[in-house]
Specification:
heterotrimer; A mainly alpha (155); B alpha/beta (309); C alpha+beta (333); A: 155 residues; mainly alpha; Arc Repressor Mutant, subunit A; 2 domains; two-stranded antiparallel ribbon; 2 strands; 42% helix; C: 333 residues; alpha+beta; 10 helices; flat; transcription regulation (chain A)
Chain lengths: 155, 309, 333
């Protein structure tokens, strides 16, 4: 069973935090296929967040095919998340890159900023309301009112 | 169309002719199943609004609908906790809960009330008179929750609670909402207190509804814009900001010129010029901007649908 | 929102709409519990007064009779009958009985309604399953029943003590304690309840409401006492100049005076006619005095006056009750 920790000062939307923590649990093997996610009621009782936020996160996970809602039973993990194995070539390359970065005199924060910027460039931001992406100066989508629910709220 | 937990049209309440309007021209729609924050400064009309919804006051003008009917008919299905948490001081906690059972026959769930009281480690034999403010709040909430309301109206519910009790009781409320689909409406003048728990907002300022709608929709309908171009110099005084060619098409809620920098909170009505930097406002920024600028156009139910269509 | 996570509970709703009859009993029990202290106090007071009456009517009255008989037997010229424990006891309890409405007014204005309006517990009740009107009905009906039953019982005991010992009572059937032997006593407490409730709802604070309710009901009782003789037509008895008009022993004399050419003149100063019979006769003739008169209520007017007074009080009660319902209905949704 996964336990969510909501950090209200992180600037990351609450439902995104749930999505991210679920994925992290999938990566770390804390959650495995067939496992049941806590019910919305259990989550909100422990965290005092809005139940609809939990449902929104679960819908997002469902949309990504990671979990499935079984009516009356709960939400279950469908598949795990593949992590690059510790000895994969990608990891070796990243390792070498990190060593080079350190040698050029970059500190931890510089590296993190650089990494985040590159990440932003190549991967779509985690679906959240505009502005919740951590890097403020990163190129933003064209300035106009975005739809409220990128994934389409069924209500 | 979703069921509505609460809806108001042209709602107004005046206490005596001399004291003026506590609330006026209020229009909003709150779908069932939402957790709604009623936010506004002290004296803005939040308590009046909740009292009207609870059927404790009759509106001076306009109408308010609760759970699809008038507040008087919905009484049995609505829970209400007033700001000062009134309870009979001469009763014990157990007697208070028994009174709740007597006055809510057919709806009362004793175990729900007892669980909330027990979570605060309160002895049911203690008299209400001897309880602290926070403990009274707990008993008042237990009384309101045990009648299994479909709509729960809470006036400043967390004001007297310590952080631990606040978190636990808010969790209990959210659990109630998750389990029974209870619509919860809570007022507060502290936005941060409600931000995580609520998905709907009614911003009340000076007796009017300034913002009404889903928090996500409201945030999405607003953008913080800033520029350092000559626009700022052209604007000169902040009053002229709304007249800038780049901004004229949009609704400017608030704007500020500092040196060469111009920042504004706007409701965009189309594309913005490319040289404007944009960012999303936080809920608190949004609320403060509206409260600081009473003359800014309000965003209430008729409006958000067309803006977000 | 999602139907899975938000199952709508339909059962309680239909149960509540059916308005279970248990609601009324629950409300009654709540009102009794909330005002338990007042109820205990009132019950004790009524029991205490009844006990005193029973003791007065049996032990005290018999003792007094025995004393009087002993005195008679001894052939004493002066038997001390001016100080009667029985009569003064009855007078005192009669006053208690009559003025108990002041306590009722204070209770109704203060703790029954006023305090609940001030501290918000009225709102607490109105947001349970109870409508403000039903709350008011319970708040009025429960004390009204208790007060009617207890006051009626007390009046009956008082009447019993009175009727069995009229030989020991020297005071009249009218006077301050007049309502204590009839329905007016009950009407007074009910009126105080209604006026107190009205003051409580109107002023919404216990102390002002308590003050206003007691002042209003006291003023009402003062006015009624003042004009009690006007509540029913009086009987007039006249006499020729040679003697006083005939009055029955138990009559309540309202006015008396001289008849000047057959017309009653209450304030004619005929006492200045002094001297011998002939002188007086002449003096009176000069004044035009043709006789004397007295207007009075015979004891048979006791019940008509009681009933008229009761009627007036119940009318005030009804008006105050209507006003308090109107106010509560108008203020709340």
């Amino acid at each position: 069973m996964v336990e969510y920790r909501i950090d209200r000062h992180s600037g990351v939307a609450t439902y995104v935090q749930i999505v991210q923590q679920t994925k992290q649990a999938l990566r770390l093997g804390v959650l495995r296929p067939g496992d049941k996610l806590p019910t919305a009621r259990e989550v909100v009782e422990a965290t005092a967040i809005n139940p609809n936020t939990v449902l929104k996160a679960y819908r997002e996970l469902e949309r990504e095919g990671l979990v499935e809602a079984r009516r009356g039973l709960g939400t279950f993990v469908r598949r795990g998340l593949s992590t690059a194995p510790a000895d994969s070539p990608l990891r070796t390359e990243l390792d070498a890159w990190a060593v080079r970065a350190r040698d050029t005199g970059l500190d931890r924060e510089d590296v993190a900023a650089l990494f985040t910027a590159v990440l932003e460039e190549h991967f779509a931001p985690p679906g959240g309301p505009p502005g919740t992406s951590p890097a403020a100066p990163a190129p933003r989508p064209p300035a106009h009112a975005e739809p409220a629910h990128p994934q389409g709220d069924p209500s | 169309m979703t069921d509505l937990a609460m809806a108001a049209t042209a709602l107004g309440k005046r206490f005596g002719r001399r004291r003026g309007w506590a609330l006026r021209d209020c229009a909003f729609r709150l779908p069932a199943g939402r957790v709604c924050a009623v936010v506004g400064p002290n004296g803005a009309g939040k308590s009046t609004l909740l009292s009207l919804a609870a059927g404790l006051l009759a509106p001076t003008e306009g109408t308010i609908t609760v759970l699809g009917t008038d507040p008087a008919s919905a009484r049995a299905r609505v829970g209400y906790v007033a700001q000062d948490k009134p309870l009979h001081p001469q009763l014990t906690i157990a007697e208070t809960l028994r009174m709740g059972a007597h006055l809510n026959p057919g709806r009362w769930e004793a175990t729900a009330a007892e669980r909330i009281v027990a979570a605060g480690e309160l002895d049911p034999r203690r008299r209400i008179r001897a309880l602290s403010g926070g403990q009274r709040t707990r008993v008042a909430l237990a009384l309101a929750l045990a009648k299994r309301p479909e709509l729960l109206l809470l006036d400043e519910p967390m004001a007297d609670l310590d952080p631990l009790a606040r978190h636990e009781l808010m969790g209990a409320l959210m659990s109630q909402a998750a389990q029974h689909g209870t619509t919860i409406v809570m007022s507060s003048h502290v936005v941060a207190e409600l931000e995580d728990s609520c998905d709907h907002l009614l911003l009340v300022g000076r007796g009017r509804i300034r913002l009404a709608g889903e928090i996500d929709d409201l945030l999405a309908a607003h953008t913080r814009v800033s520029t350092t171009t000559q626009a700022a110099e052209r604007a000169g005084a902040a009053e002229a900001v709304a007249e800038l060619p780049d901004l004229r098409a949009h609704t400017v809620v608030e704007s500020r010129v500092t040196g060469r920098q111009l920042t504004a909170l706007i409701r965009p009505a189309g594309r913005l010029a490319d040289d404007w930097r944009t960012s999303a406002p936080s809920l608190e920024e949004l609320i403060l901007a509206y409260l600081r600028n009473p003359e800014a156009a309000s965003l209430t139910p008729a409006a958000p649908e067309e803006a977000l269509a | 929102m999602t139907a899975v996570a938000h199952p709508r509970t339909g059962a309680p709703q239909s149960a509540a709409e059916a308005l279970p009859s248990g609601a009324s009993w629950g409300t009654v029990r709540t009102v009794l519990r909330l005002h338990r202290t007042a109820l205990v106090f009132w019950t004790l007071a009524v029991a205490c007064l009844s006990g005193c009456l029973v003791r007065l009517a049996t032990v005290t009255a018999d003792d007094e009779r025995a004393t009087l008989e002993a005195c008679d037997r001894a052939g004493q010229d002066f038997c001390d009958t001016t100080v009667s424990d029985f009569a003064s006891g009855m007078g005192l309890i009669g006053l208690f009985l009559v003025y108990s409405f002041l306590a009722v007014a204070a209770f109704a204005g203060g703790s029954l309604i006023g305090r609940e309006m001030e501290n918000g517990t009225a709102h607490l009740a109105w947001t349970q399953g109870i409508s403000p009107v039903r709350w008011l009905t319970a708040k009025l009906a429960v004390p009204a029943l208790v007060l009617t039953a207890s006051t009626t019982a007390l009046v009956l005991v008082y009447r019993w003590a009175w009727d069995g010992n009229r030989d020991l009572l020297s005071f009249e059937w009218v006077g301050e304690a007049f309502p204590s032997r009839g329905p007016a006593a009950v009407a007074y407490v009910l009126c105080a309840l209604a006026v107190g409730a009205l003051a409580g709802v109107l002023l919404r604070r216990p102390l002002p409401a308590l003050g206003a309710a007691t002042a209003t009901t006291w003023a009402l009782s003062f006015v009624l006492t003042l004009y009690r003789d006007h509540l029913w037509p009086t009987v007039t008895s006249t006499s020729p100049t040679s003697g006083d008009p005939y009055l029955p022993g138990t009559a309540w004399q309202v006015a008396s005076g001289a008849l000047v050419h057959g017309r009653p003149v209450p304030d004619l100063d005929y006492s200045r006619c002094e001297g011998g019979d002939a002188e007086i006769r002449r003096c009176l003739d000069d004044l035009g005095v043709t006789g004397y008169y007295a207007t009075y209520h015979p004891e048979s007017h006791y019940w008509p006056i009681q009933l008229v007074e009761t009627g007036i009080l119940l009318t005030v009660t009804a008006l105050a009750t209507a006003a308090v319902y109107w106010l509560v209905r108008r203020r709340t949704a």
